[in-house]
Amino acid sequence: NTSGDDNVAFGENTLHANTTASNNTAIGTSSLHTNTTGDNNTAIGTESLNANTDGTENTAVGANSGDSITSGVENVTVGASAGDNITTGSRNIIIGANISAPSGAGDNQINIGNAFKRDNSGNIDIDAGTNEIDLTALTIRHNGTSIHSSDKRLKKNIETVNGLDVVNKLRGVEFAWKKNDMESAGLIAQEIEEVLPNLVHESEDYKMVEYNALSAYFIESIKELSDEVDNLNDNIEKQEKIIESQQKQINQLLLMVDSE
């Protein structure tokens, strides 16, 4: 160490090559062994983050965890030899003994026990083994868009909802959040609970709403209103034909009167 500050090293050859790096914690033989200028790294376990030189804000827990990272940043590896194939990749999360990242140079990857993987292209792989994956409440977010499970094969007791009857009992409101005074608009969970209790849930004593499910009622409401408009248009068309017919009769009567 030459000018690095606030480093903690415990164990043989820990932070051995450090020169100017600061705020690193290395616990275990040869952890952060070749680090020179990388700051804010935490390595706990023999040879964890062993090859890191200038990578910053990496966290590795377990023997040989993240031991091939050289310049990658903000990686989290937990478990013996977890993420030991990462070299220059950044912001990866790898959990489990001997669990590797999908790519050593990839960014924003996840591998949790080989059961849940996300590669640097955003592809997701879920391996449940012989267990059944519950898709009934699955939500996938892709490019800022939420995609929800909605396959008919996952559902039963399917019935069309009463749209207007329900929507007319709901109240849309504007409000400000108490925490930050941010203005917003929406519905009140307690009011929805009186009409649609199955769409309201509690988490940590606060009520939450399945807003996505409300779209079913809005859609049927629009369809019902559309039917009413169509009926009104039909009635107007019929009235116009009656008026037109009556007008013709009046004109004929006027002609007869004039001819006399």
Overall description:
This protein has 260 residues and is an alpha/beta fold. 23% of the residues lie in helices and 20% in strands. It has 3 helices and 15 strands. Strands 1-2-3-4-5-6-7-8-9 form a 9-stranded mixed β-sheet, with no helix packed on it. β14 and β15 (206-209) form a beta hairpin. The longest helix is centred in the C-terminal third of the chain and has 49 residues, at 211-259.
Short description:
23% of the residues lie in helices and 20% in strands.
Give me the secondary-structure category. alpha/beta
Output mean pLDDT. Answer: 90
Low-confidence stretches: none
- Summarize the amount of helix as a percent range: 10-25%
Using only C-alpha atoms, the radius of gyration works out to 33 Å
Number of helices, counting only DSSP H or I runs of 4 residues or more? 3
Largest sheet: 9 strands, mixed
What percent strand?
A: 15-25%
User: Can you count the beta strands?
Assistant: 15
Biggest sheet, strands in spatial order? 1-2-3-4-5-6-7-8-9
User: What is the string of SSEs from the N terminus onward?
Assistant: EEEEEEEEEEEHEEHEEH
Basic shape: elongated
End-to-end separation: 124 Å
